[in-house]
Amino acid sequence: MKRRDFIKNTAVAGVLLPQFLNGFSIRAMAQTSLMPAAGHDQINDRVLVLIQLNGGNDGLNTVIPVDQYGAYQAARPNIALPQNKVLKLNGADAMALHPALSEIQLLFNEGKAGIVQAVSYPKPNFSHFRATDIWMTGSDSDKVLNTGWAGRYLNDSFPGFPDKYPNETMPDPLAIQVGSVVASAFQGPAFTMGLAISNPANFYNLIEDKTDATSNTRWGEQLAYLEKVSQKTDQYAGVIKKAALSITRQSDKYPTPGKNPLADQLKIVARLVAGGLRTKVYLVSTGSFDTHAKQAEPDDTTTGTHAQLLRRVSEAVGAFMDDLKGLNVADRVMGMTFSEFGRRIKSNASGGTDHGAAAPVFYFGNAVKVGVIGTNPQLPTTATVNDNVAMQYDFRSVYATVLQQWLNLPPNEVQRVLMGQFPLLPMV
Amino acid sequence: MESTKATTRLEAFRGKWSDEDVKHLLKRTMFGAKPDDVVHVRALTPRKALNELLADEPAPPPPINNYNDDKFTDDEIMPGETWTTSINYDGMNNGRRRNSFKAWWLGLMLNQSRTLREKMVVFWHNHFATETNMVDNALMCYRHNALLRQHALGNFKELVKAITKDPAMLKYLNGTASNKKAPDENYGRELQELFTVGKGPGSQYTEADVIAAAKVLTGFRNDTITFVSLFDPGRHDSSDKTFSEFYRNTTIKGRRGPDGEQELDDLLTMIFVQDEVARFICRKLYRFFVYHQIDADTEATIITPLADVFRTNNYEIKPVLRELFGSQHFFQAMNRGAMIKSPLDYTVGLCREFGIAFPESTDYADQYGLWLAVQNQTAAMQQNIGDPPNVAGWPAYYQEPMFDKLWVNSDTLPKRNVFTDGMTNGAIGRNGKKLTIDVLAFTQTLPNPADPAALIDDAVRRLYMLELPEKDKQYIKTSILLSGLQDMMSDHYWTQAWQNLTAKPDDTVNKTNVTRKLKSLYKYLMNLPQYQLT
């Protein structure tokens, strides 16, 4: 058997294991196509958007296990969401969404979003830094990698970067990160494969030819000059500017700039995708999911920090999808959220939750297969402080799926990029 | 000797002598402000600090044979021995010795003492620019450089005299080809236009003065075997030379025989009577050390009194520098961070401020090799020591209205960023020895590295002359040190990681994690425009 066939077949076989099937909603199963996409078509126009939820999102208050309401409420009486307020998911009655996730609910019910339950990895690490590195690099929890998973994918697909780029085939950045320095996810074997638009303000400075520095002092005048040269010098500044300037109208569903940083970032992504950039991967991030205290308001648990954080995500993704639709590029984009870990089943006395293990991943896009992959976490009747949400899916299965079935990376290369074989999920 | 005669003086610095003052002084007078240099100078009074910066030093050991390899063995000079004793030159050894010379010079900057000397050598090299490519003899280049170093803080008039007779300069500006039948005007022109009276508003020498000076200067040539200069009376124009009104219609009496050489003294005496000489040099010093623009106010309140000090002290250089670096004006807030770093300030400054380790002298081949690697990077950023673009030196020091902005363009700015990234990653290496910023060691020298906000504050203070806006620091803290975590309460995650490292320095996972974040931090800080300013 050829190596590639072997991997293909085992991948399919792995997915067909009975316990795996239990997790699928009926609709998801009906639409499942686990055959790898044909051909190694790197220059397709598909785009992957990664949304990082920094801090460790509380999955149990994001996707609520309504089939175990008693245990859920008992484990976290001070933050549990009332049953009559959670948002229903069509065809998935066992679970429901946090009330703040109305846009995600809408997308799910329209068949444009799905959920992978309890994503993690063996022997999870509860340090933010280490866990983030594991998700970014795609390593086992006891290994340290110096390259990122997306960086390896891009290095594989665009050989000779950066020396041979930009070129006619790929005139655009391979990956773009809005809102931070380039994440380790984009780190290639020798170079970072991504480009950081270090914050939204810089992006608008770039397209409007502005600088932050004022020139009414000797050093300020020098600084303004340096910023100008720096803008003009970026080898990708021209193409980014051109792409951005070709889009003059975007969805009015976006909140006022500055109100929702994630929405501000996704608005830039939509503009660049629709503006024609062939950039394959975007990474945006939003923070403060590290909710150790006062995660919810005691008198109304549907309000408070976590509600506000999830509302931002939901609102941003909703506006982004609406924008992509209006810009006629919705079919090209698939997005997914991830967080470095989930939180403990039992809440703490400060009305918060402590660092935990597995958590759900949302994915969305016109082309995704709707559904809930996996089952609700099994909650103990009397949760202790050490109880955790057990892993159902390795995060690298999610990566393997998007690489192979969305970005069309051949299975053998997927395996090389992820340094191992991970069963595919019916996300696409 | 410094004169005690009364002279117009600049208002003396009377500040409190803070770390910021010391950093400003050191960054301008040396290559970068090393932390231990700042500590040392801070403990002195401003007056004592200037005394140390202006102190004389013995000449450094000369460059050596670092260059034997598979393709070439210097049969005359043993490896590790200096080649400056050799007068045997051929196409094979010359290029290698020239590289050795450049590496050596770069090494002197990297290992400079706490004095102004190395900065002044570069200043004079830019002023009396020669190109090794054209001089094409490593020994002459070395001797020229040694001459600049010897006079760097000495007497300007003596320096001009020595430079006029310097073999490298004689060759570079055609002095060796000049004789009474065909006096070459090249040096006679540059002596006035570039080296002494300049082209400023107070300078009105004429074309006839150029011709007359050229005649005065006939007779000097090089001994082509020993590469020293000599005066050859047979080639000297011994007629009387009369100069223009600008030089008060001075006539330099023609002299015959060996006495013809003394006409050079007459010429310099005539030129140095002009007030413009002192003003021209002081303007150049000001542009090199303080700020590129000289407006009418600066001319009146800074240049004029400085020039006065220069003349009163018979063109001794130290009193002028003492006056400038001891002035209130030099320390004014508006002049801080107001210069774009020259490539040398950028590369050598980085190596010194981050304490980059180079191989020891016992390992001279790699030591010279890595010095040369830094030199090559600096050259790629458009400051190739030994080879300025032409006799006027680097345009960044004279070309209006851009001046130091010329250092930075769409070619050199990315090269600067590639350099800082490369130094963070250990991209420059030789025989397995890498030039790398040890981010952990550097961070450990900061006062409070466990506190992420303090760490960034202190790193910014170490690396920049300017404050970074609070929102930028907040952004850097959150996105780099805290991996995207927000809120004050997240700070303890960094603190924890740092303390874990301190407790278990060999824990690979934590070390990798902290090191990765610190590398991102320093790369980011060095990629911001603030790092370009000094």
Largest sheet: number of strands, sense, barrel closure of chain B:
2 strands, antiparallel
User: Into which percentage range does the β-strand content of chain B fall?
Assistant: under 5%
Shape of chain B: globular
Rg of chain A over CA atoms, rounded to whole Å, is 22 Å
**How is the CATH topology of chain A named?**
Alkaline Phosphatase, subunit A
How many distinct domains of chain A?
A: 1
**Mean pLDDT, all residues of chain B:** 95
Strand order of the largest sheet of chain B: 1-2
Shape designation of chain A = globular
Model regions low in confidence, pLDDT < 50 over at least 5 residues of chain A: 1-42
Percent strand of chain A: 5-15%
Number of strands of chain B: 6
Which structural class do the helices and strands of chain B define?
A: mainly alpha
Task: Give the helix/strand layout.
The complex is a heterodimer of chains A (428) and B (534).
Chain A: H1 3-15, H2 18-21, H3 26-31, E1 47-53, E2 63-65, H4 69-75, E3 87-88, E4 95-97, H5 102-109, E5 113-120, H6 128-137, H7 149-157, E6 175-178, E7 194-197, H8 200-207, H9 218-233, H10 237-245, H11 261-274, E8 281-286, H12 305-326, E9 333-339, E10 359-364, E11 371-373, E12 393-394, H13 395-406, H14 411-418
Helix pairs in contact in A: 5-12, 7-14, 11-12, 13-14
Chain B: H1 19-29, H2 35-42, H3 46-53, H4 91-110, H5 117-127, H6 132-135, H7 138-151, H8 156-164, H9 167-172, H10 185-195, H11 207-216, E1 220-222, E2 229-231, E3 241-242, E4 251-252, H12 263-272, H13 275-289, H14 296-312, H15 317-325, H16 328-331, H17 343-353, H18 364-380, H19 412-425, E5 428-430, E6 433-435, H20 439-444, H21 452-463, H22 470-481, H23 491-503, H24 508-527
Antiparallel strand pairs in B: 1-2, 3-4, 5-6
Helix pairs in contact in B: 1-2, 4-7, 4-18, 7-8, 10-11, 13-14, 14-15, 17-18, 19-24, 21-22, 21-24, 23-24
